[in-house]
Amino acid sequence: MTHKIIIDTDPGIDDAMAILYAALHPDIEIIGMTSVFGNVTSDIAARNAIVLAERAQQAIPVAKGADKPLVQTPNPVSDYVHGVEGFGDMPAQAISAQPVDEPAHEFICRLINENPGEITLCPIGPLTNIALALRHDPSIADKVKDVVIMGGGLDRGNVTDHAEANIWNDPHAADAVFAASWPVTMVGLDVTTQVICHPPDFARIAAASPVLGGFLNEAVQYYFKFYESHYGVLGSQMHDPTAVIAITDPQYFTIENHALEVIVDGARIGQTIRSADPSRPKHKVPMGVDIDGVKQRFLTMIETGF
Question: What does pTM read for this prediction?
């Protein structure tokens, strides 16, 4: 089965892992990418998405998206996690292509309308573009195949004690996405923090695949320093690639079904919680994961392309 996906992204080191994994996967067709603020600015995110497409030797259209949240004042970009240009200590990368002349939310709606029932939306950054797309054309909720999100977490946060970074960066957008009647899978910190790759893992993919694995190995060194200084772990939690793997390999996950909502103000802003609102649809929430299965799926794909 071929999965047609749109990746909404703020690359970002783990975004790069997810995008290159998807680009290599024989059963995934990336029909477009959209940029959003978060790890970097939306402009840098658009450039970095093109960098990754060109490194993977794929002509993937990229549309520039939101550069600020729907309501709240923007949080600072996460350069202390991902580096100023998004790929650790690497300088800005040159690109040949340019973003398409279409706003991200309109680009998303157009592709869904042109491919009804076929598109999986895969947002791995703040959900602003996705909420704007819903607002622009609510009918996409009935036309999309799936929405598989990296974000949230029912039992933990990372940027605060309560909130995961993507949801915290635009809680109002996230709440709108979870309130909509479309099929959402929230791949959150409940599972992504359990999947960790270590320096020898990235050395392995660099040796096997110097162009793509070598690129990721160079970028991830910055990530290793962040995780060691903040969590005492010499490794990389595999947030975004785990979400893409959930699209093609659901067998690695134990799923619960919950209505979801996001706290949009106060001390717990950005927290994703189980909702008691009976009008909200239930969504899929992976709460268990085959750690080694996901990890080896990622490493083997980057090494061998299958």
Answer: 0.97
Tell me how long the chain is.
306
Q: Report which residue type is found at 46.
A: A
Q: Could you give the CA distance from residue 52 to residue 127 in angstroms, rounded to a whole number?
A: 21
* DSSP secondary structure letters along 248-273: H-GGGEEEEEEEEEE--SSTTTT-EE
CATH number at residue 73: 3.90.245.10
* Alpha-carbon span 100 to 227, nearest angstrom: 35
Q: Are strands 236-237 and 196-197 parallel, antiparallel or unpaired?
A: antiparallel
The C-alpha R_g of the chain, in whole angstroms, comes to: 17
HSE value, Cβ hemisphere, 13 Å, CA-based, for 83 = 23
Determine whether 172 is an active site residue: no
In whole angstroms, give the CA distance from residue 240 to residue 215: 17
The C-alpha atoms of residue 263 and residue 209 are separated, in whole angstroms, by 43
**How far is it, in rounded angstroms, from Cα 305 to Cα 81?**
28
Q: Encode pLDDT of 171-218 as tens digits.
A: 999 999 999 999 999 999 999 999 999 999 999 999 999 999 999 999
In sequence order, the β-bridge partners of residue 34 are: 8, 63
Q: Sign of torsion, CA 136 142 147 153?
A: positive
User: What is the total count of domains within the chain?
Assistant: 1
Tokens of 297: 């799926």
Q: Which of 276, 270, 69 is nearest to 162 (CA)?
A: 270
Taking the C-alpha atoms of residue 252 and residue 238, their distance in angstroms, rounded to an integer, is: 14
Q: What is the pLDDT of residues 33-71, one digit of tens each?
A: 999 999 999 999 999 999 999 999 999 999 999 999 999
Residue among 25, 239, 258, 283 flagged as catalytic:
239
State CA 150 to chain mean position distance: 5
Whole-angstrom Cα distance, residue 159 to residue 239? Answer: 13
Determine the Cα–Cα distance for residues 219 and 48; give it in Å rounded to an integer.
Answer: 12
Q: What is the DSSP letter of 281?
A: P
Range of the domain at 114: 3-304
